[in-house]
């Protein structure tokens, strides 16, 4: 079989190349020819096509994402910002946390189990490549309508994939979200988040400095998984039968990943790694170009040395393969023996496939012939950048004009509460979360159904200093809000995640995001994206929490039907003394119940409008970030002073749902009266910047005083106790009934 | 007097070893790491086989671990009376190694289940349960996909009549185990295997909302100190 070498490329300049099939535009192909001064070899074409794909190059989003840098608030906590495998923040006592959320949407539609499983695997390797021990995961999931037939195919597969892979890895799953809307029926969203810990002076970066240093590929052997996955799967819409794309989904082996985690940790401890990069989308192409571009600038690789699971693979396929559980490290010649010994201890195959050079070129050979000879930065960093046109969608004004005011209000609020509590979006997600191990590693302080997950920082790595600190994490995002107003929708997503972290007593510190949208080639979708990024960047600035990294997922549409714009925002917070964490809901009888924050009449995009009327129109709740900041300040101060016995944020479904969930949490009832004249508004409005807390009676005045200091309204609603939720003059419902409705909904659908 | 030494075994794919070692230390014993590839029990007084997915659960849960070099030392030592506790994957390994009868198969509901489970202590006379009362009800987390205890009729009959069922599920059997069996013991009472996780129920702050798992570790400690 002939190999398309550089020599051959020079001899056959007019050879027709399949760049269009690889997802490259005509002008992009011409640029590659200009850069190289000749036609690319087929291997070079493979590299440029994946590296310049939307998935790897962020070519449509880059100009908007820049705002996360230019508008970034001053933060002393930020150690590594956007552009690396994951952001890193200083959490005190010499510790740093690294976290990131990433999408695996398209593969999860094609093959729900493997798509979701490898989504977890990929984000965990991102965290490992920063030098950290992964300590927890969570997942933000969106599916079509709960009773739509395809949801019954996709959801169980996705949950099982996450469950199988994450549980085998030994990482507690501490939270996340599940939401349903028919707009996701052909494009489910699987956004996986991982958080890791490391000593702040031991951060690893993806860089290959030092000519003569060895390039080691370690982990699983390379097979035909996901060939073309990055450019084909992530860039194309699903107009064809998904069958044709099935082979492009990668298959994961969590056992190998667990060995890789322990192996990497031991390699870091032994200090035998100069630079490291995980192999994700675009596999060897991405790892070699990015490592070389950020290091001394050159690298030579003998592709024949890549260990293969399928010996018939061609060099182009090896370059594009997305086989899972692989890493690439740069190691000094003197450390190679020690490096290999650790890999052998963990039964992790490791092979030297090349070395760092100072030539400024990435050179690869196959059977002795040069098949790649490129400046690595041109593939890794100099991809195309598009200023895609955008404009407000044609129907946007009409959508905003069709407000919820015209909807008939309910007369029986008891029935409304039970209907909402048992609706798929508000029902208990236990059917999902009971399939995840939330206890492994023994550090889980809070997990579902708490507002945020929290883990204690303990026994992360041998010999490291102990601390009383803990970290809290939450992800949130409401596609309906963002559809009505993407600017406000993105801000509300951030506000809710920020609030969820604050109600546990932690102080929000940093942000990651996963931006799920339709096709960027549609100017109306691009407007949603531009508005959402602008909203999020502005909100981060006001709340003082920087974006540390994230991921963009475009092309979540089938034909011309795009999903609701769905920015999912993750917030990480720190609590100085994890023993002072605040538990979820009403934790004991005899406590005073207080509502913090102001309630307005806000039903645009609400669960009530959605569930009861199938209506989406008007404007979402107002995102008052100053109020949000004040509320968070009250909550963390109150937790630190030990004033709060339990808490819960108010969000979808409003106060009614927060009260019901607070009662269900520990089986403790409550008797309350509403601070608003209109009971319906008081119970079901979805105004932001609100939280429910319970305090010992003698602590109430101190709480009220604290609220006064931060300008946060504080309403005493009543007391906890009894076996039912009683709202004065409105209804009284036994907690057992609330629980039955809440927990019974998803099992009734999914078995 | 030196502290009692409890070995905690790590196979490739073991996950709860850190938690197991912590529970041992919290009880006041020394946790000694034991590595699957070494034929060396390091002179420990008891052994804890923690949960996880050893060898990826490939072939069958515990089937490959059974052949690890360490097991060549552990199996005869257990037959000679060394106290051994296996939880979850550790229980599966003990069954595969024939230190305990029966087998753990796929949960009846086919899903992995993680929940806080009510469990009854049926036998408080083993090396690992002496600090409990017979009939005592405790809460321990379960988290497994293959925890359905099965055995042939004669074995079940023997386990029941000899009082070797140590734990039974209460308030709903999470996996379809025969006779609601959550854990069993060897004839001599030194080897105990169970699907629930006592090591995740030893601290107020973390893990399950109970500290009912502490009794396992105080039981073995008292036994070793008094030996």
TrEMBL record, chain A:
InterPro entries: PRibForGlyAmidine_synth_PurL, PurL_linker, PurM-like_C_dom, PurM-like_C_sf, PurM-like_N, PurM-like_N_sf. Pathway: Purine metabolism; IMP biosynthesis via de novo pathway; 5-amino-1-(5-phospho-D-ribosyl)imidazole from N(2)-formyl-N(1)-(5-phospho-D-ribosyl)glycinamide: step 1/2. Residues 20-59 form the Phosphoribosylformylglycinamidine synthase linker domain. Residues 210-366, 589-722 form the PurM-like C-terminal domain. GO terms for molecular function: ATP binding; magnesium ion binding; phosphoribosylformylglycinamidine synthase activity. Residues 83-197, 451-575 form the PurM-like N-terminal domain. It catalyses: N(2)-formyl-N(1)-(5-phospho-beta-D-ribosyl)glycinamide + L-glutamine + ATP + H2O = 2-formamido-N(1)-(5-O-phospho-beta-D-ribosyl)acetamidine + L-glutamate + ADP + phosphate + H(+). Keywords: ATP-binding, Cytoplasm, Ligase, Magnesium, Metal-binding, Nucleotide-binding, Purine biosynthesis. The active site is at 55, 104 (proton acceptor). Part of the phosphoribosylformylglycinamidine synthase complex involved in the purines biosynthetic pathway. Catalyzes the ATP-dependent conversion of formylglycinamide ribonucleotide (FGAR) and glutamine to yield formylglycinamidine ribonucleotide (FGAM) and glutamate. The FGAM synthase complex is composed of three subunits. PurQ produces an ammonia molecule by converting glutamine to glutamate. PurL transfers the ammonia molecule to FGAR to form FGAM in an ATP-dependent manner. This is Phosphoribosylformylglycinamidine synthase subunit PurL.
UniProtKB/TrEMBL annotation, chain B:
The active site is at 88 (nucleophile), 197, 199. Keywords: ATP-binding, Cytoplasm, Glutamine amidotransferase, Hydrolase, Ligase, Nucleotide-binding, Purine biosynthesis. Pathway: Purine metabolism; IMP biosynthesis via de novo pathway; 5-amino-1-(5-phospho-D-ribosyl)imidazole from N(2)-formyl-N(1)-(5-phospho-D-ribosyl)glycinamide: step 1/2. Its main location: cytoplasm. It is found in: Cytoplasm. It holds the Pfam family GATase_5. It comes from the Bacteria. This is Phosphoribosylformylglycinamidine synthase subunit PurQ. It comes from Planotetraspora mira.
